[in-house]
Amino acid sequence: MKKWVNRAFHHYYAHRYARFEHFAQHPKRVQLNVLTSLVEACKHTEWGRSHNFKNIKTAADFAANIPVQDYESLKPYIERMMHGEKDILWSGRINRYSKSSGTTSDRSKYIPVSDQNLKKNHIRGTWDTMTSLYHLRPDAKQFECKSLLMGGSLEPYAPHPDTVRGDISAIMLENMPWVARPFFSPDFETAMMPDFEEKIERMAQITAKENIVMAGGVPTWTLVLFRRILEITGAAHIKEVWPNFQAYIHGGVSFTPYREQFKKYLPGGDVTYLEVYNASEGFFAVQTDLATEDMLLLLDNGVYYEFIPRCEMHQENPQTVPLWEVEAGEDYAMLISTNGGLWRYNIGDTVTFTSVNPYKIKITGRTKQFVNVFGEEVMVDNTDEAVARTCEATGAQVLDYTVAPIFIEGKNKGGHEWLIEFAVEPPDTKKFARLLDKNLQDINSDYAAKRYRNMALKSLTLRDLPRNTFDKWLKSKGKYGGQNKVPRLSNSRKYLEEILEFYDGERVSL
């Protein structure tokens, strides 16, 4: 029976793949149709009336009528919507809000998830992921075995109990189509437990006995689960527990620093690693070619895209370009207008187009996660690649890291300070730091220029933190588990100093 169901899904996904080919061939037409539908749907809303939606006919009209937005500018509207007001940013009343967790900020961001946004963006994006996987793997059997669920949790919004808020993964689980539910593990009650440590334990106990074929989630927390499963079972690696395991779906952070660790947990070379670009704000892209590390931008999922060129990113009123005017090889900040009521919203990610026919992207960092105090313009993709090269050369494995500037004081030169947690320690930490600095210079010419003969920047300094320091710090801020993660780069020392202060406090208490 299960084999028959899986064959049926193979045929369904093969038919569905034609959508990718259609919007790849007609990107401008498809995107303009999305824009028209968004504007038409919201002419009568408070936002639509105040921004002259009735007279918007072109992409240029749209850009001229609406300034670039961020969360703070939309927050007053969203708060009213969470209290039950309707027809504000989107048509009707919205009762679901996803919690954005891009940083460890103490202030949470709540993103509206309308019925249209849930079904035609987030859930459709999940089906798009399976469409790509089944296209890439003719032997895929997600609907013959079981896939791992690692969801977040939901809670009512106290001022207006009809409103619920929480992780987008939990919202999607709660609304998962009935046809898919028998093919997932653990049970939904376990998957949506609010206590993350208890959830990991129960997940490990349950799934260690299942025939798991696929998993997805943030790499850091997936590795935590894998370690616990091996402790329970005594197995040497996860393939001994799940011999039919085929695919790991990852997103949220770069997979580069984690790739070698996953290969040790999942040996054999027959596991497919598929990257997706999904966030609280929407589902935007999926990898469609395993030979390249980029993703196809999904153009018909209820999102209209615009882009801010790198030279405009920090301007008060930046110039933007529509999709059909971007250039391959250039860095852009991404703006989205969605069927959830976000309008020209700066999501905070920077992307590079690897191709414009079709439109494929790589995430290069966060608009607020970079180090550029001295003109070095170091982005997350630079540091991730430098870490990966250094680990490969030394045999080390990095669990997580954060980087901040060392500011110039008196005669002391500036530089970068790294805090790193190792899964496998390098033989010589000082040599690791020197090689890491060299690799970063090889990858980023601006950093190399500032490092030339130590004239502007001194060599990076590295501090090796004990295992679980980052986890404990996140937990102390109420940010443990789910999609929460340590900020990799910062142009200030705020996060790094907080972590060091927390670590010193931990040492004193011991």
Question: Mind explaining what this structure looks like?
Answer:
Helices cover 38% and strands 22% of the residues. With 510 residues, it is α/β, with parallel strands linked by helices. Among the domains are: 117-127 and 137-279, Rossmann fold (3-Layer(aba) Sandwich); 370-509, GMP Synthetase, Chain A, domain 3, CATH 3.30.300. A twelve-stranded mixed β-sheet has the order 6-3-7-8-9-10-11-16-15-14-12-13, sandwiched between helices. A four-stranded mixed β-sheet has the order 2-1-5-4. Strands 19-20-21 form a three-stranded mixed β-sheet, with helices on both faces. β8 (247-250), α13 (259-265) and β9 form a beta-alpha-beta unit. α15 packs across α16. The longest helix is centred in the first third of the chain and has 22 residues, at 115-136. Residues 102-106 have low confidence and may be disordered.
Describe what is shown at a glance.
The protein has 510 residues and is of the alpha/beta class. The protein has helices at residues 2-16, 18-25, 27-41, 46-50, 59-65, 71-82, 115-136, 168-174, 188-191, 196-207, 219-233, 238-241, 259-265, 380-394, 429-443, 445-451, 469-476, 494-509, and strands at 96-100, 109-112, 146-148, 154-156, 164-166, 184-185, 212-217, 247-250, 272-279, 282-286, 295-297, 303-309, 321-322, 331-338, 345-356, 359-366, 370-371, 378-379, 397-406, 415-424, 461-465.
